[in-house]
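Need fresh eyes. Consider my entry:
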Amino acid sequence: MIREENFGNDPEALFKFCDSDGDGQVTKKEFIRGIMCVSLEDLFQDICKKINSDGDGIYLDKKDIKGALIECGFKDPTDAAIDNLYKKCDVNNDNRVTHSEFIKGFLKDRFDL
């Protein structure tokens, strides 16, 4: 999990995280993506806890994902869009999406992170 507290007071750890191409330099684009990723992941953790309809706290169903998208400002996501995102998020193909899978899948799908 990417969490802000993982970096603490260690700017080198944050630098390595942001340096996505590993060239030893952080471009403006890499920096913005890195900071967005940390901020969005924290936001999505809160949203996932809020919208988990069956209360298991672990897995999100399609109804939960629709709720998360609406919570993030998407007006009325179509069933096809939800199905597509669900499939992208279920990386291990177990027909279940964890909070972590959803966060990573959404960020990758929307921001190519």
Observations:
- The first strand starts at residue 59 and ends at 60.
- Residues 4-111 form a domain with the Recoverin; domain 1 fold (CATH 1.10.238.10).
